[in-house]
Amino acid sequence: QSALTQPASVSGSPGQSITISCTGTSSDIGTYNYVSWYQQHPGKAPKLMIYDVSNRPSGVSYRFSASKSGNTASLTISGLQAEDEADYYCTSYTSRRTLVFGTGTKVTVL
Amino acid sequence: EVQLVESGGGLVQPGRSLRLSCAASGFTFDDYAMHWVRQAPGKGLEWVSGISWNSGSLLYADSVKGRFTISRDNAKNSLYLQMDSLRADDTALYYCAKDINYASSSRGLDYWGLGTLVTVSS
């Protein structure tokens, strides 16, 4: 099972919006609504930001939103803040009864 | 407060075995699926294995299938990962993670431990 494809890096200035894409196949993102997103700061454990494609867990800022179209999922961070600088990973359940993570995206706040 | 505490990592020679444990507290353990996720030094996250609430469904990544065995003891609020025939490319920080769902077809992992480091080297 190949990893889902994410851009290696995305950057933006404070206050701007950025979008991270996550491209899979019809065997994962395209079929299942079990897409989630994680934020990981250096040396820390990942944090769940989005589950079931577009749902935010309690305590996650409204500035984080997500969606899915076809085989591609997307995470948007609006009103970019310095604390958003981190690595972001998507993941999806697959038809082979596995989970697959994305390649990861480093977000830089300029 | 939900807590997940991994243990059992260490330095092991290629071909040998290691058993990881994860002690859970602060939630009803047997209501949720659990997973192991690893991260090699400087690399991304890789899902390793998942287990449903009642151990009825066991899932494995292709990279560990046939070598690793996931299990849980709901009476002890504990998750385990038996790792056999270890290889150098199994070297990673291994995280225990709680699913938001009871089934192993993960909808999201909402709590993570701090990880336990496994180093496979001669």
**Number of alpha- plus pi-helical segments of chain B:** 0
Q: Which secondary-structure class do the elements of chain B indicate?
A: mainly beta
Secondary structure: number of strands of chain A: 9
Radius of gyration of chain B: 13 Å
Briefly note the structural class of the backbone of chain A: mainly beta
Oligomer description: heterodimer
Q: Largest sheet of chain A, if any?
A: 6 strands, mixed
**Share of helix among residues of chain B?**
under 10%
Mean of the pLDDT scores of chain B?
Answer: 96
> In angstroms, what separates the terminal alpha carbons of chain B?
40 Å
Query: Topology as H/E string of chain A?
Result: EEEEEEEEE
Strand content of chain A: 35-45%
H/E series of chain B: EEEEEEEEEEE
Task: Provide structural commentary.
- The complex is a heterodimer of chains A (110) and B (122).
- By secondary structure, chain A is an all-beta fold.
- Helix content of chain A is 0%, strand content 44%.
- Chain A has strands at 9-12, 18-23, 35-40, 47-50, 64-69, 72-77, 86-93, 99-101, 105-109.
- In chain A, the strands form two sheets. In chain A, strands 1, 3, 4, 7, 8 and 9 form a six-stranded mixed β-sheet that branches. A three-stranded antiparallel β-sheet of chain A has the order 2-6-5, with no helix packed on it.
- In chain A, strand 7 and strand 8 form a beta hairpin.
- Chain A is globular.
- The N and C termini of chain A lie far apart (35 Å).
- By secondary structure, chain B is an all-beta fold.
- Chain B contains no helices and eleven strands.
- In chain B, strands 2, 4, 5, 6, 9, 10 and 11 form a seven-stranded mixed β-sheet that branches. A four-stranded antiparallel β-sheet of chain B has the order 1-3-8-7, with no helix packed on it.
- The mean pLDDT of chain B is 96.
- The chains are: A mainly beta (110), B mainly beta (122).
- The interface between A and B is medium-sized, with 27 and 24 residues.
